[in-house]
Amino acid sequence: MTLMTKFLGAAAAAALSAGAALADPALIYDLGGKFDKSFNEAAYGGAERWAEETGGSYKDIEMQSEAQREQALRRFAEAGFNPVVTTGFSFSTPIAAVAGDYPDTKFVTIDGYVDPEEHPNVKSILFSEHEGSYLVGMMAAMASDSGTVGFVGGMDIPLIRKFACGYAQGVKAVNPDAEVIANMTGTTPAAWNDPVKGSELAKAQIGQGADVIYAAAGGTGLGVLQTAADEGILSIGVDSNQNHLHPGKVLTSMLKRVDNAVYESMTAGADLEAGVEVLGLAEDGVGVAMDEHNADLVTDEMTTAVEDAKAQIAAGEISVHDYSSDDSCPALTF
Amino acid sequence: MTDTAPAIELKGISKAFGPVQANKDISIRVMPGTIHGIIGENGAGKSTLMSILYGFYKADKGEVFINGTRTEIPDSQAAISAGIGMVFQHFKLVENFTVVENVILGAEDGFQLRPSIAKARKSLKQLAEEYELNVDPDAKIENLSVGHQQRVEILKALYRQADILILDEPTGVLTPAEADHLFRILDNLRNEGKTIILITHKLREIMEYTDTVSVMRRGEMTATVRTAETSTEELAELMVGRKVLLRVDKKPAQPKQVVLSVKDLRVTDSAGVERIKGVSFDIRAGEIYGIAGVAGNGQSELMEVLGGMQAGTGTITMNGEEIDLTGRYSDGQSRRARSIGHVPEDRQDEGLILDFTAWENMVFGYHRDPDWAAGPLMNNAGIVQEAEGKMQRFDVRPPNPHLTAKNFSGGNQQKIVLAREIERNPDLLLVGQPTRGVDIGAIEFIHQEIIRLRDEGKAILLVSVELDEIMSLSDRIAVMFDGRLMGERDPAEANERELGLLMAGISEEPDKPAWKAVDENLDAIEHGEAPKHG
Amino acid sequence: MDKMPAWADVVLIPLISLLLAAILSAVVILAIGESPVEAFNLMVDGALMRSSGWGYTLYYATNFIFTGLAVAVAFHARMFNIGGEGQAMLGGLGVALACLYVPWPHWTLAMLGSTLGAAAFGAAWALIPAYLQARRGSHIVITTIMFNFIAAALLNYLLIGVLKPTGSMEPASAKFDPSFALPTFQQMFSSADAPLFRGAPANVSFFLALAACLFVWLLIWRSRLGYEIRAYGWSQTGAKYAGISGTRIIIISMLISGGLAGLMAVNTTQGEAERLILNSTEGAGFIGIAVALMGRNHPFGVLLAAILFGFLYQGGAELALWTNIPRELIVVIQALVILFTGALDNMVRMPLERIFLALRRKES
């Protein structure tokens, strides 16, 4: 027993020396890893911004296995981190399992949903990706000469279909006759990081006449953007502003402000308000990226149309169908 | 001769493997231009001694002199440059290379192959003329007969300028005629001044072809004598350490009812080649039916069909009941159920599982016998007990049933197989190559056991490439050649020469030397032509 | 003559291999500016010095026991079953179907049902490669590894479509009925004043794994079938001589192997996640190869090796939690262990054999 306490002490010391203090926030990335060039990295960016601005410190960890999710949540909660922020919908189930045991700790699930009635210490942050995708879909249809636009998804999961479905609806809203070619890169997590395959898919879509391609595929999307630039057609980035990657070749980017969600959760600290928050167009949780890199590509007509649609969606006059609500899409078949 | 230095002189060579003393203080002198035989039982240390000479092992103690100068041989490369060539029992040839390619392998001159090949071709031609070492330089090894492959091994050594040639059990795989040819080649080599060391366990070869002979027993050199001054009996006694019965002592057979009847058996192998081309014979209770022949003429397939390892067509009846020949996997079991025991030709690959213990091997093939069951499991304790008894009765050494089969010597492995099959008391025992690689002491025992079974009124089918064995054990002899039985002989009337010709597919052709006819026929087979039947 | 005593083969070689792997890992950790001693302390502390750590170690070990046994059984017939991953995925499907569509009255019955389902689905997934090997000669390594991909694609299809509850974002099945949840070690061994295994996923299926070890031992070393499997594995011609059907041995041993791999899903799917998720196997099928190799294909060795790998997994998680050692390096450390215990076996074995020979010579 003495040996055990000794080791426990050593562990605690190690934990402290690693720079953790009580009530620091913690951030847990999903299996994709910290530097996935997608939303895990955006979350990291938000946390860094918070640390820089407040001078505070936080603890983060990357997942290696499914069973580790619950373990990490528990260990962080036990060590006194608050709030514990997680990225990726896969955390909603483990958080639901763990939250009850640590009522004093606040948990945040970004992209996930945990019933606030059952777990009053959990905050779910969701994004209306379909709405943002709708807007870039409109821009794609307006920029397209051929009337054919493409979509390259990462791993074939409902979330990505939600992107694709919103995009297709936006395209059809502008040009009902337009054709949307949608491809998923793969069915395993490797599909998030396969730029070569992304490039192949982009080429195939170009071969079928697409002249604007929207990539919602993490690292795979970089291959799509590259190929689109090489082949002289337009592309649309995702999650963070990717316009600068190929100035003048990326029509726009569908922004998903995971960084803001992390930043604000950390700023609120232990006083974080639990519940469900959906960040849509109105909250600037999603949006289209306009900057000097794509200024020449975006016509006034596009700007007006996007602004109008944005207002109409916010007012509820346009309802963009959410794929994940019923696993079906009126504008696109997969 | 007295003034010349010996071609090889070993002084006080000792070598131990752990607690086993493989060579103990061995000294030997071999004069140039002689054939020196080394004879001894398996495990006597012959191969270890030659491996030291060829640089595979390093001696713990002792010195090696080549042509009078002390020579260190740390590896085989050093042995080759000292002029030593070795022909192994199992050839070390690349099967899908041609003869020339094999000859130059490891002795190429430069980066480019072409000049080496041209040079080798020229020297092969020369060697062939000098020593009757005829081989087609462009034939692939896999298409050559065993005898020809052996010649390639000799050519390889000679091409590397070997003056001393070591041959390890060279005649084990040859027909008598091929063996004769080999010895004529060796004779030619000796006349050219080459020195030859011949390792064998066949006393006849020693007596006929060597100038001097050394006998080894349990790691020691028990004697070195001039061949002319010794006798077969003396050598055998020196080898085994006691008097040995070289002739098998047996009463005349008393055949009774027909046990096995084979009619028009045909077997086609997986490549579509017909290996057995209509064979018919009967075996009666109380007799040994011996089938002689050069390996590869269908004997193996015959044993496999009878043992249930291969499919065939025709009719086989066992004790009057017809046997299923469709070649299902379960046939091995159903043959045993019909009281057919099977001592397979290849005990290491078929008759035993070398990585099983002796007791596990004692029920191999009979492991589904209800006697050995304990509910859903095997009655291991019972099997061990039974195995102990069988090992004692068959004098398996060491009599430890928990020892892994691969740790027994060849003779003792064979005794394990025989104990298993004979103790089942089968009506028919198939015995393939019962004494291949088995030492003289064990051969005697194995032969006695086979005859004892015959005298108990069992039928025995004996297949062996050792003509001596067939002649001394069998009550009737048939020779198999190219998938056919070449007629039956009474062992009392048959002579070795006649059988040897039958083994080569020749009935009678007195003008031609036998070996030449054999060569022609083998060549014909290699080239896919039908062999000439005399 | 055996070159080494058996204990050296079974104990000394793995230990030395482990030591080498540990030394090299320490160098790696030093190179990135962390303290290897502290890292080791963290791993030991997190994995072995508290009951919840053991709870994770044994949870991972349970997976590795099943997949290790699967590889070992197939290997006794000289079948190299690389498909444990896919077979375990299908096992998960079996568990999910049993738990989603049958209203079991009690968790024990649910566990029985899911055990049968997991074994049946895992075995069925191994059957096709086994049949192709036995009848068509298609190499089992190639077919099983391809079947891993097919299994992943199949599960993906089912979890995105058929099995996913409507509206759910995750590619996962619905939660199983809570009454089917397997008792965890926490529930089994904790009392109010002595909480043990808090929150750890280790559950009653660990005992199922122990039972599987016993089963495999009886099967391989005590049964007629095991005798035939080993005989076929050592010598195919020998098996033919003895009337042992190669087709039968290949198919039966692969069925057992696939069934064992499938059983892993009882632990992950019913025991831990309580629903079928996309990547529940997480490479355990491949770890099983290393476990079997290190455990010398003996159930007891597999058990020990599985616990070692469980320790590495849990200790690695602790390292990721409390140090700045990136997870890629933790994978490197695990890979080093596999490399030394598996692939580089001879590197340790051969010098050791020489040492033993030399020692023996001195004695004599």
TrEMBL record, chain B:
Residues 8-243, 260-507 form the ABC transporter domain. One of its GO terms (molecular function) is ATP binding. Its main location: membrane. The keyword Phosphoprotein does not apply. It is found in: Cell membrane. It is a peripheral membrane protein. The keyword Transport applies. CDD domains: ABC_Carb_Monos_I (cd03216), ABC_Carb_Monos_II (cd03215). Belongs to the ABC transporter superfamily. This is Sugar ABC transporter, ATP-binding protein.
